[in-house]
Design goal:
By secondary structure, the chain is an alpha/beta fold. It has one domain: NAD(P)-binding Rossmann-like Domain (Rossmann fold, 3-Layer(aba) Sandwich). The radius of gyration is 19 Å and the shape is globular. The protein binds nicotinamide-adenine-dinucleotide and thymidine-5'-diphospho-beta-D-xylose.
């Protein structure tokens, strides 16, 4: 199988490339990535001689036609992915997440190639803390931020191309990922690398917000399950029953890193901050037989902390600029 992976130099994409090279040596991997501030060739260094890398933009129609024409299937990770950035400057979220998905859809339509589109649980909006319901495939879309509305737009384009043009595509909406190679702008790596840099962790508001954490390898194994067993036109929610408040996660980071429980700052809340995400992944489990392997968040978090401790060369070059972008907060 010749597999085109968009956004393969980013957090989840790079982990997907590593997993694929490690566990499916018969798959020929081509990565296309624009190498924005969030993309790192270094994340692919351990597998550099096992893959083809193309620096390019998913919104480049001609390039997508050429690359898609040379593969059997596409997994589409490439996106602008950070909510805080989408509040500061939404423009690239529209061009990459919407126009980029459109360019890819036209290419897979022209070449009859299978597409798996990676999306997020944020398209559903948020839940009350005490709501017994979780998101399912039937939950209506109700996105809050420029990021999540651009991902929702992309999902709707995929659904329309399936229905109107018979494109062979599946969609997955996953909850918050953690693990190695995640950009230090995101919650967990920001707090770990703040501590490692002598800075105090920063909690938005009171930290009541709940996220449903999943290890990146569990997400990526679910993507492989859908690629192999998923039904064209279907959407699958991916989640590992990992609900935790931000305050709880930060407390665990502080404990595992040997810091005082009070060793953090509460800072201004994110505008429009979604309160809670929670995924019911029953369809993926019962219909396709997927189950998460990382069942102990504490262990997964400890391993992630260890990775950031051992890989300072990877994150230190962009730590300062990331904190500068966050401002004094
Ligand atoms: P990331 O920001 O770490 O990586 C994104 C990658 O896409 C980078 O390598 C970047 O260079 C590349 N890219 C950006 N614009 C591009 C363009 N125009 N053309 C080609 N490449 C481009 O993001 P991530 O956290 O790895 O997320 C990957 C995907 O998973 C996204 O679609 C995101 O919406 C989705 N997702 C993320 C999470 C999460 O918790 N991080 C959860 C659910 C879904
Ligand atoms: O410094 C911080 N302090 C803080 O309290 C940061 C960066 C975040 N937070 C909070 C905001 C959120 O409630 O932590 C939570 C997680 O924040 P992010 O890591 O920015 O993730 P989130 O906004 O939940 O979105 C993530 O999950 C869904 C990914 O970034 C998206 O790409 C994915 O679609």
């Amino acid at each position: 199988m010749r597999l085109l992976i968009t956004g393969g130099a980013g957090f989840i994409g790079a982990n997907f490339v590593h997993l694929t090279v490690r566990e499916r040596p018969d798959v020929q991997v081509t990565v296309v990535d624009k190498l924005t501030y969030a993309g790192h060739r270094e994340s692919l260094a351990p597998v550099a001689n096992r893959i083809e890398f193309v620096k390019g933009d998913v919104a480049d129609v001609d390039l997508m036609h050429r690359l898609v024409g040379e593969c059997d299937a596409v997994v589409h990770f490439a996106a602008e992915s950070h909510n805080d950035n989408s509040l500061r400057g939404p423009a690239p979220f529209i061009t990459t997440n919407i126009n980029g998905t459109f360019a890819l859809l036209e290419a897979v339509r022209a070449h009859g190639v299978r597409l798996h589109h990676i999306s997020t649980d944020e398209v559903f909006g948020d839940l009350e803390i005490d709501d017994p319901q979780r998101f399912t495939e039937a939950t209506p879309y109700n996105p809050s931020s420029p990021y999540s509305s651009s991902k929702a737009s992309a999902d709707l384009l995929v659904r329309a191309w399936v229905r109107s043009f018979g494109v062979n595509a599946t969609i997955s909406n996953c909850s918050n990922n953690y693990g190695p190679y995640q950009h230090v702008e995101k919650f967990i790596p920001r707090q770990i690398t703040n501590i490692l840099s002598g800075l105090r962790p920063k909690l938005y508001g009171e930290g009541r917000n709940v996220r449903d954490w999943i290890h990146v390898d569990d997400h990526n194994r679910a993507v492989w399950t859908i690629l192999e067993k998923g039904i064209a036109g279907e959407t699958y929610l991916i989640g590992a029953d990992g609900e935790k408040s931000n305050r709880e996660v930060l407390a665990l980071v502080l404990e595992l890193m040997g810091r005082e429980p009070a060793g953090f700052d509460c800072v201004a809340d994110r505008p429009g901050h979604d309160l809670r995400y929670a995924i019911d992944s029953g369809k993926l489990r019962s219909e396709l037989g997927w189950e998460p392997e990382f069942r102990d968040f504490r262990d997964g978090l400890a391993a992630t902390i260890d990775w950031y401790q051992r890989n300072k060369d990877w994150w230190q070059p962009f730590k300062e600029a990331t904190e500068r972008a966050y401002g004094a907060g």
